[in-house]
From TrEMBL:
GO terms for cellular component: nucleolus. It comes from Channa argus. It comes from the Eukaryota. CDD domains: Ribosomal_L1. Keywords: Acetylation, Coiled coil, Isopeptide bond, Nucleus, Phosphoprotein, Ubl conjugation. Residues 260-363 are annotated as: Disordered. PANTHER family: RIBOSOMAL PROTEIN L7AE FAMILY MEMBER (PTHR23105). Residues 260-284, 319-332 have a biased composition (Basic and acidic residues). Belongs to the universal ribosomal protein uL1 family. Highly divergent. This is Ribosomal L1 domain-containing protein 1. Its main location: nucleus.
Length: 363
């Protein structure tokens, strides 16, 4: 990024701060203070303009190693197949001797770490016995659950190394001499150890410059990134070695204002487009409705043809047929005959009843 390339350190200012810090570490010797020796760490404190969106771990190679002769290193290795823990320790000791690695004091296989260093006290003892920890990259992901949080709180988490590489001594030396810086997404400050109190002022300044360049190059952020840089030890006050100009802040504010304006203009354009679309749709709907109404009105205005009744063949009513003369003649005769027969039968019954009554009884 162009903004990152413009950031530069003033070497004179950095060297003055380093000399002041070294003088403070030499003169500061009270009973309340911590014991000061060559392993007193010197760190860089970076303050960023923004909180990073993503967490990041930056590996920083240093021109002058901050490992002293008294530092003790511990190596965690994987369990070799068909070998016991003692056999794996011997195997890796021979491998390190063949590759020319001499600064590792102890080798701990993964099985031994799980069994012997399972209790809490054993883990604390292991943490205090060694200054640095290195692990085989094949078991690096398995270590956090067995080491515990204290290794990571004190920033002594093991650094991964490829034990199968041809240049093993060079790789281990780079890892031991270099340092790491963790950039979290929970705050705008991050720290990296770059030197110790036993180094000269020139060596410390060179390490600071190298760390600064790598951090600026590898940070995954846009625009102005670094706001402040301080140098400090474990017991000293933070001394400033870099302050960013306020021009960057004004530029950033101007860029943010421009972005907000552009976003507002885009929003207005989208709103106008949506309104135009809605108006065109409404106009189209209105036109369709008007066309429908016009069509209906035209249909109403057309002359409606008058309905003319059509003559349909009606069914002729069935007229009662006139009775024939013979039938007319027969019907009254039959009725009169029937009446005469009934009257004769009644008279006969009456006469018989009277006769029966008048006959005298014979003695």
């Amino acid at each position: 990024m162009a903004d990152k390339e413009e950031v530069e350190l003033d070497r004179v200012q950095v060297k003055k701060a380093v000399q002041a810090l070294q003088a403070f570490l030499k003169t500061k010797s009270t009973s309340d203070s911590l014991f000061l020796n060559e392993t007193q760490q010197i760190s860089l404190l970076f303050t960023l303009w923004k909180i990073p969106k993503e967490a990041q771990t930056i590996r920083i190679p240093l021109p002058h190693g901050q490992q002293s002769d008294t530092d003790e290193l511990c190596l965690f290795t994987r369990d070799e197949p068909n070998m016991t823990s003692e056999q794996t320790q011997r195997f890796y000791k021979k491998l390190l001797e063949e590759k020319g690695v001499k600064n590792i004091s102890e080798i701990i296989p993964y099985k031994v770490l799980k069994t012997e260093y399972k209790p809490y006290e054993a883990k604390r003892r292991l943490l205090g016995n060694f200054d640095r920890f290195i692990s085989d990259d094949r078991i690096r992901r398995l270590l956090p659950s067995h080491l515990g949080k204290h290794f990571y709180e004190r920033k002594k988490e093991p650094l991964s190394v490829n034990l199968q590489s041809k240049n093993l001594a060079r790789d281990i030396q780079r890892v031991v001499q270099g340092t790491n810086m963790k950039v979290t997404n929970k705050g705008c400050c991050c720290m990296a150890r770059v030197a110790h109190s036993g180094m000269t002022a020139d060596e410390v300044t060179e390490n600071i410059e190298a760390a600064f360049q790598t951090v600026v190059a590898k940070l995954r952020m846009k625009g102005p990134v670094i706001k402040l840089i301080h140098i400090k030890s474990q017991t000293s006050v933070a001394l400033p070695i870099y302050n960013s100009d306020l021009n960057q802040l004004s530029l950033e504010a101007g860029e943010s204002i421009q972005k907000s304006k552009e976003q507002g203009a885009k929003k207005k354009q989208t709103k106008d487009k949506n309104q135009k679309d809605t108006t065109t749709e409404e106009k189209g709907k209105k036109k369709v409705k008007e066309n429908k109404k016009k069509a209906e009105e035209e249909d109403d205005e057309e002359e409606i043809p008058k309905l003319v009744p059509i003559e349909t063949p009606r069914k002729k009513l069935k007229l009662e047929k006139p009775l024939k003369k013979k039938q007319l003649e027969k019907t009254p005769k039959l009725a009169a005959v029937k009446k005469g027969i009934k009257a004769q039968s009644k008279l006969a019954q009456k006469t018989e009843s009277k006769v029966k009554r008048k006959v005298p009884k014979m003695k």
